């Protein structure tokens, strides 16, 4: 496995202290993708296997895991179900 960088580390490297709304959306996509990749790897599944279970293509799953797309709630529901998990959306104080 390769060593992973967190979103905070990426931002520090870019010198971005206050996130523009587009950066915030990118952060969410990046963190969701990283979490899905981690869960997939814990199960020993390939991207293709998870994609098939979620009704997606392998290339769509690769983009998702890389944070290249902002997924819709139905897509997140399908991915969660494929991982035998329940999607939980939470609002917390800033």
UniProtKB/TrEMBL annotation:
Domain of life: Bacteria
InterPro entries: Cro/C1-type_HTH, Lambda_DNA-bd_dom_sf, TransReg_Diox_bact_type
Domain (HTH cro/C1-type): residue spans on this chain: 36-91
Gene Ontology molecular functions: DNA binding; DNA-binding transcription factor activity
GO terms under cellular component: cytosol
Coiled-coil boundaries: none
SUPFAM superfamilies, sorted: lambda repressor-like DNA-binding domains (SSF47413)
RNA-binding among keywords: no
Xref: Pfam families: HTH_31 (PF13560)
Keyword presence, Glycosyltransferase: no
UniProt keyword terms in alphabetical order: DNA-binding
Name assigned to this protein: Helix-turn-helix transcriptional regulator
Lineage: Bacteria, Bacillati, Actinomycetota, Actinomycetes, Pseudonocardiales
């Amino acid at each position: 496995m390769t060593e992973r960088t967190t979103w905070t580390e990426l931002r520090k490297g870019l010198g971005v202290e206050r996130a523009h709304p587009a950066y915030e959306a990118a952060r969410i996509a990046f963190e969701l993708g990283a979490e899905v990749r981690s869960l997939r790897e814990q199960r020993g599944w390939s991207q293709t296997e998870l994609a098939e279970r979620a009704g997606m293509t392998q290339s769509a799953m690769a983009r998702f895991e890389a944070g290249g797309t902002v997924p819709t709630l139905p897509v997140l529901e399908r991915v969660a179900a494929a991982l035998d998990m329940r999607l939980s959306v939470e609002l917390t104080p800033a």
